[in-house]
Amino acid sequence: MKLIRTIAVAGLLLAAGFAVPRLCATEIPQAERRSGYTFMSPDTKAIQDDDTANPGMLWVLDGEALWKRKTGTADKACADCHEDARASMKGLAARYPAYDKTLGRPVNLEQRINLCRAQHQQATPLPYESRDLLALTAFVAQQSRGMPITAGADPQLEPFVAKGRDTFMRRQGQLNLGCTNCHNDNWDKHLAGSAVTQALPTGYPLYRLEWQSLGSLQRRLRNCMTGMRTQIYDYGAPELVELELYLMSRAHDMPIETPAVRP
Amino acid sequence: MWLAAAGLTLARAASAQELRPYTITGDSIAESLTGAPGDAVHGRALVLERTSTCILCHSGPFPEEKFQGDLAPSLAGAGSRWSIGQLRLRLVEASRLNPATIMPSYYRVDGLERVGTAWRGKPILTAEQIEDIVAYLATLRD
C-alpha cells in the first residue's frame, strides 16, 4: 500500500519534471539495516552477550522484584493483575509505543507502566529515568528479547508514525542538522570517535558505558538533540513518543535486545 | 544572480543586529568580517575545541587529537585548495555553495528551526573566531 503510494508520488514528480529519488533514496534498504550492536567493539559486545557481565541485568532483577511488590492505595502489585510476566509480557515491548484508545494517541512503555500505576494501583507516577521506572521497563522489555519488532503496524498509528518521520527528516537547531543527515546518510562514518549507527532502537532501555547507567530511548534522543543544539522536548512529550514510534517502525522485524549495552 | 545573493545578505545582516554585514562575490567573501586579519595560532586552538564542532566531522593535521570525525574531507591542504575569501564563505555559509551540505553555517542566525534557548539569536562562531580559523586554514598547505 505504502509502496504503491510512493510509486504514484514518484510518477507524479517525474511527470512534473523533477528529479525523483533524493527523499526516498536516503532511507536505509531493509537488507542493509544493522543494530547498533554490530558497530561495537568485541569487548563491548561481550558485555552485552553475557548476562552475568551485563550491568543492565541489575535493573532487570530490580524490576522483577518491583513487579511483585504491592503498592499504591489499591495495594496491588503488577503481578496481581498480570501474573507471570514471562507469559503475560512476552512480545509486548516489541509492539510499543502502542495506540491508547482513551488518550487517542500512542504511549510508550514507560507511560503505559505509569498509566497502570495511576488506574489500577492508585499510585503516583514514577518519574522518567528514575531507577524504579527504568527497572520495571527493562524487566517488561526483557520478556520480548529476541522477538521481532512490530511497533507501528497498527493502522491507527499511521499519522503519528508520519509525524515522527517528519521530525527525523527536518533540519533543526543551531547546527541545522536533521537526524537523517547522520543516521540515514552517514551511518558508516564517525562523529569524532563515535560510530554514527543507524538509530535503530532495538535494545532500550539500555546500559550506556558513557552514562554508567541504564537509560531510556528518550534520554538518547535528547542527547542527540542537545548535540544539534535544538530546543529539547520534555520527557514524555508527544513529539518524542512519535519519534520513538517512527524509529521502532524503521526497525520492523529486527529482534529486541533489551537490556542492550552501548558505548 | 550574485547581485541578488548580495541583496539577500544585506537583508539578513539587518535582521540580526549583532552580525556584521558582508558581501559575497562569486564563491567568496573577499573582506575580513572584522576588518582585520585573524590570528592563525588562536585559530588552530579553536578548530580543536569541541564547542567549535569542526573535528566532530573533520580530521586534519592534529596528531595530539585522538578523536577526529570522518563525515567530511580532511582539513589538511585546505589552504592550497581554497583562497582566504573562499574559506571565509565556506565558514560563514557553506550551504550557499552546496545547498544539501551538512556543514553548519557558522555566521548565521535566521532560517533556523527550534534553536535551543542557550544558542538562539547567536551565530555558532563570532566574526573574530571565524577570522582566526580562516587565518589558520590558510596555513594548511600541502
Shape of chain A from CA axes? globular
CATH architectural arrangement of the domain at 56-142 in chain A: Orthogonal Bundle
Radius of gyration of chain B: 15 Å
Compute the average pLDDT of chain B.
Answer: 90
List unreliable stretches of 5+ residues of chain A. Answer: 1-25
**Separation, N- and C-terminal Cα atoms of chain A:** 38 Å
Say which CATH homologous superfamily of the domain at 56-142 in chain A is assigned: Cytochrome c-like domain
* Known CATH architecture of chain B: Orthogonal Bundle
Discrete helix count of chain B: 6
User: What is the assembly state of the chains in this entry?
Assistant: heterodimer
Instruction: Summarize the largest interface: chains and residue counts.
Output: A-B, 23 and 25 residues
Element-by-element helix/strand order of chain A: HHHHHHEEHHHHEEEEHHE
Question: What do we call the CATH topology of the domain at 56-142 in chain A?
Answer: Cytochrome Bc1 Complex, Chain D, domain 2
The main sheet of chain A orders its strands as 6-5-7
Percentage of residues in DSSP E strands of chain A: 5-15%
Number of helices of chain A: 12
The secondary-structure element order of chain B is HHHHHH
Description of the structure:
The complex is a heterodimer of chains A (263) and B (142). Chain A has 263 residues and is mainly alpha-helical. Chain A has helices at 2-15, 22-25, 42-49, 56-68, 78-82, 85-88, 109-120, 131-142, 158-169, 179-183, 217-227, 238-250; strands at residues 98-100, 105-107, 190-191, 194-195, 206-208, 213-215, 261-262. Chain A has a domain at 56-142: Cytochrome c-like domain (Cytochrome Bc1 Complex, Chain D, domain 2), CATH 1.10.760. Chain A is 43% helix and 7% strand. Chain A is globular. Chain A starts with a helix and ends with a strand. Chain B has a single domain (2-139), classed as Orthogonal Bundle (Cytochrome Bc1 Complex, Chain D, domain 2). Residues 1-15 of chain B have low confidence and may be disordered. Chain B is mainly α. Helix content of chain B is 37%, strand content 0%. At the A-B interface, β3 of A face α3 of B.
